[in-house]
Design a protein that fits this description.
Radius of gyration: 26 Å
Low-confidence stretches: 1-58, 337-402
Strand content: 25-35%
Structural class: alpha+beta
Order of helices and strands: HHEEEEEHHHEHEEEEHEEEEEEEHHH
Number of helices: 10
Length: 402
């Protein structure tokens, strides 16, 4: 490789970033290509012979449980105020069947998008759910921790709420109504008076709590680097005592091993374990994954989303449930490590031409990449200045003349 980092290559690298990298809009979307160019320039200027691992920005950690919605198990009724009048809804506690084993108890998030039986849901961060940007999302977690089914003492819950006697059905209905008020800002009222008083109490008492961790995740979800070394680390985050670790088919076919920092192969890991992709020297450009699997309880307040827009469930209770997570390693031969994240995509012919003048210039301490580095550095300065100019000049709501 000649050391030329083309605009088309940067474009392809940017297109392969995990969803959400760079923020997607505003200054983040503008700066993401700049950060990639800086990382690539660093690899070029290092001479490519000792290219360091590049950790690519990624979306919030994915992984965890996947489950199928089986339906409501304890519920009452509620009235939703709409422009057309009152709409009667079922409000209560759902049960979900976890793929691989286990069950979840959940409440709905999104009053306008009721859960669909047999729909498949996957665990996700709040930022990837309808709770994204909701400053009161943490209050929903408080409600879940201080109401049914986490609290089975319904008489004590009724006393705290100043309500009449509660059953599982009315407690579930009141809890769901309180969640909808916070998740959607909905004008919704429980039909049962005791359930309504419970909803009022929970909404009034709820405090903001932090987002719960994933049941199982790997961070970062992508690492890159040169063949002949170890790529990583990728860190395991889980509530399970241990999880099984294995390379995927692509990694195994390339001879990649999953190891610890000491190079010893790893087949089991615990929370905080750091994993590495050990890539054989001389391996061709490629990519492979590591998967981890285990069984643990999904934390209360964790969200699961469906493919249908707006459909989400928030965990109110969990048995020991199966969870999975994965991460990807991308590698290239040492002297082409500057384009590792292109993941073995073929380059245009002009970019594939070899430059053999490096050996002739070795004695002088320079190489054919020197003019490229200088040009790239100047380009980055100009690009950075342009970004700053655009961000400072972007109109705001208070700009005169709007």
């Amino acid at each position: 490789m000649s050391g030329v980092v083309s605009a088309s290559l940067l474009s392809r690298i940017s297109s392969r970033l995990p969803a959400g990298a760079g923020g997607g809009r505003g200054s983040g979307a503008v700066l993401a290509p700049v950060l990639l160019a800086v990382a690539l320039a660093g690899s070029v200027s290092a001479g490519l012979a000792h290219a360091a691992v590049v950790v690519v920005p990624s979306a919030p950690p994915a992984g965890g449980a996947s489950a199928v919605l089986e339906g409501l198990t304890a519920f009452g009724e509620a009235d939703l105020r709409t422009p057309d009048g009152l709409q009667r809804l079922q409000a209560g506690l759902y049960e979900m069947r976890v793929e691989g084993g286990g069950t979840l108890q959940t409440y709905g998030v999104g009053v306008a998008s009721p859960g669909q039986r047999e729909a498949r849901y996957t665990e996700t961060a709040w930022s990837g759910s309808p709770l994204r940007g909701n400053k009161d999302a943490g209050r929903i977690r408080w409600i879940l921790q201080h109401s049914y089914p986490q609290l089975n003492d319904l008489a004590g819950l009724a006393r705290r709420a100043g309500a009449g006697p509660l059953t599982a059905e009315t407690a579930a209905a009141g809890t769901q109504v309180a969640i909808w008020r916070i998740s959607d800002g909905a004008g919704v009222t429980a039909v049962d008076p005791a359930a309504e008083k419970l909803a009022d109490y929970l909404q009034r008492a709820a405090q903001r709590l932090a987002e719960p961790p994933a049941s199982l995740s790997l961070t970062p979800d992508t690492v890159t680097g040169a063949a002949g070394g170890r790529l990583g680390p990728v860190t395991v985050h889980t509530g399970a005592q241990s999880v099984a670790v294995a390379p995927d088919a692509a990694a195994a076919a390339a001879g990649v091993r999953i190891t610890g920092a000491d190079g010893v192969p790893v087949t089991e890991a615990a929370d905080g374990t750091r994993l590495y992709f050990e890539v054989p020297a001389g391996a061709a450009d490629g990519a492979g994954g590591v998967s981890v699997q285990g069984s643990t309880k999904v934390p209360v307040g964790r969200v699961l989303t469906a493919e249908a827009p707006g459909q989400a469930q928030v965990v109110a209770g969990s048995s020991e449930s199966a969870a999975t997570a994965s991460a990807t390693g991308v590698w290239a031969p040492t002297r082409t490590a500057a384009r590792t994240y292109a993941e073995a995509l073929p380059l245009p012919a002009a970019e594939q031409s070899a430059d053999t003048s490096d050996t002739r210039l070795a004695a002088s301490g320079s190489s054919s990449a020197t003019p490229v580095i200088a040009s790239l550095a100047v380009g980055l300065v100009v690009l950075g200045a342009g970004v700053v100019f655009l961000l400072r000049k972007r109109p705001t709501d208070t700009d005169p003349g709007e």
